[in-house]
Design brief:
43% of the residues lie in helices and 14% in strands. With 286 residues, it is α/β, with parallel strands linked by helices.
Length: 286
């Protein structure tokens, strides 16, 4: 426990992927995570009260969606283009990725999104001033690239205790080096108590494994957890990419790691990485 009466707290920061995400996109996921966290904790120690996780979200969509809307207005102003929904999806997906790229020409969008993440972190630190906060990041799709870059850029100021990447295209992003083997500086989580779990559905065409990119990612990422995501409609097809937030196969590994962190913080029970990975494997045939 921290000295001087300070408390040790656990914060979960959500980062969405592409699309016009609105404030509140993570609320149902956070509620389910909190519920699962308490249920799993009670199984470990029935005498524990029901502690609350600090759950916050980063909403960066307006930074890119407003210019995309203007682009669509311009290109479609004199032409009645077909396949409107597909075109808008392409503009959103490719537009977010292109706009976020660092170009060396001011990097306005990159810096704005970075500042948005920082503002959420600062708000948590200010709200719980004097307490020691451990940060767990849960990031979907392009959000996983954003948080990876944020943690790398701010390594002197913050280290994630845990990082959960959902349907992450970081492997494809590594092609910016020309050869994925040259992507030799992955972000790092806190060791020996932290974990980076990369969660993906095997039919999600945007999410890819990370550990086989090169030895650096094999060391940084504890597990590529390949599972099934989604309900009757999305399970077994590429629509699974949008199903991670409320799926138990994604939530349980996060909740269980937070339980292990809670027991380490408050009961001095050491974290065992092999035991944690064994738990994940028990959820699905990894």
């Amino acid at each position: 426990m921290p000295k001087g009466g300070a408390m040790k707290r656990q914060a979960v920061i959500y980062l969405h992927g592409i699309g016009e995400q609105k404030a509140g996109y993570s609320h149902k996921s956070a509620e389910k995570l909190q519920e699962t966290f308490v249920k799993l904790l009670k199984k470990k120690d029935a005498s524990v009260s029901s502690p609350d996780l600090i759950c916050r979200e980063v909403v960066w969509a307006p930074i890119t969606s407003d210019p995309q809307a203007e682009l669509w207005r311009r290109v479609n102003s004199k032409h009645d283009l077909d396949m409107v929904k597909l075109r808008k999806f392409l503009i959103s997906f490719a537009g977010d990725a292109i706009a976020y790229q660092k170009t060396g020409e001011g990097d306005e969008v990159y810096n704005e999104i970075d500042a948005k993440v920082q503002s959420v972190i600062d708000a948590v630190k200010n709200e719980y001033d004097g307490d020691d906060v451990e940060f767990t990041f849960v990031a979907h799709s392009l959000g996983s690239i954003i948080v990876s870059n944020y943690l790398y850029d701010h390594a002197d100021d913050i280290t994630a205790t845990n990082l959960f990447t959902l349907g992450s295209p970081i492997a494809v992003w590594a092609l910016r080096y020309g050869d994925p083997a040259k992507a030799d500086s992955p972000t790092q989580v806190e060791r020996p108590n932290g974990a980076w779990i990369n969660i993906l559905d095997d039919e999600d065409i945007i999410g890819y494994p990370l550990r086989e990119l090169n030895p650096h990612y094999k060391k940084a990422v504890d597990m590529d957890y390949v599972t099934e995501i989604g309900g009757v409609i999305s399970m077994g097809n590429p629509i699974s990419h949008i199903g991670y937030w409320e799926d138990n196969n994604a939530i349980k590994p996060i909740a269980y790691k937070l339980v292990l962190d809670y027991l380490r913080i408050h009961q001095n029970k050491p974290y065992s990485k092999p035991a944690y990975l064994k738990y994940i494997r028990s959820l699905w045939n990894v």
